[in-house]
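Worked example (supplementary).
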Amino acid sequence: MGAAGKPVLVKAPGKLNVFMRVGQLQEDGYHDVATAYQAVSLCEEVKASPASDFSVSFEGPIDVNGLELDGSNIAIKAARLLARTVDYRGGVRLEITKRVPIAGGMGGGSADAAATLVACDALWGLGLSREDLHAIAARLGADVPFALMGGTAVGTGRGDELSPALAKGSFHWVLVLADYGLSTPRVYRELDQHRERNAADLSPAVVAPQVDADVLQALRAGDPHMLAESLHNDLQAASLHLAPALAGVLELGERNGALAGIVSGSGPTIAFLAADLDSAISLQIALSAARLNVTRVTGPVQGARVLHD
Ligand code: ATP
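After joint prediction of all chains, the assembly is encoded as:
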């Protein structure tokens, strides 16, 4: 247990997909993907306190009113699954400070789930290994293992078969957050429909997608110019189709000094890569002046970890 059942505080990062290739629709309704994840400094905080049942509450700089607080919340699912797996008989009270946009394509729910696993492991004194936690995380969602691992990684399969990637230095990003969400399944459906409609003109979706070598090289070199050239997201066209206003945001960022802009995951968050801190600050000022909701972050950062006071 956290000493004498004392509350445990855990921080877990949101993510950007700096590369995302989506393979063919599989018979089980899922797609194989090849993605390069980068954990960024927009983080969720989960406080876990002893309780006999399971509960969750949210507060934070973003509007958390729409979130379900029952067993459908991924944080509750994570705590319950962990308890079931190790046959723990108690519960937990979870208090989450939410900063990652909801349904924003940055894996906020996944970060909550990863942080919850780490927090309950400490609170309940389980002492599970990272491998054990990873296996439980993978059952909760494709992005949960990465929120646990953090840093930079390549994800294949559904995104949950992870291998760490070498990365140097720190990249500066300016994020434009939307005041609405996009449902990930809806964006994938849009992509499938687009591919069907244009089957005659498009080359068929790949069977076993891979991350391009130049992305990995750019990450290894810590070179934002090189990374800007190789940012790619197969979901971007589908997100833009569902939220056409995002195209104007992308143009505005690129006109104001961004090296490149990309829809994060299934959107609608837009991530702009800046050459350095100074250009990130100028870009942040320009986009804020256009009344957009803007945040500056860096990556990579660590995965879910206990914060000690
Ligand atoms: P991804 O990029 O991994 O697809 P996302 O960042 O687009 O995810 P999330 O905010 O993680 O989206 O979650 C999407 C949906 O999951 C929300 O619309 C909400 O209904 C549901 N949900 C359940 N639990 C949570 C949670 N703890 N935080 C956010 N959303 C949650």
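Two points are worth noting when inspecting this output. The radius of gyration is 19 Å. Residues 8-165 form a domain with the Ribosomal Protein S5; domain 2 fold (CATH 3.30.230.10).
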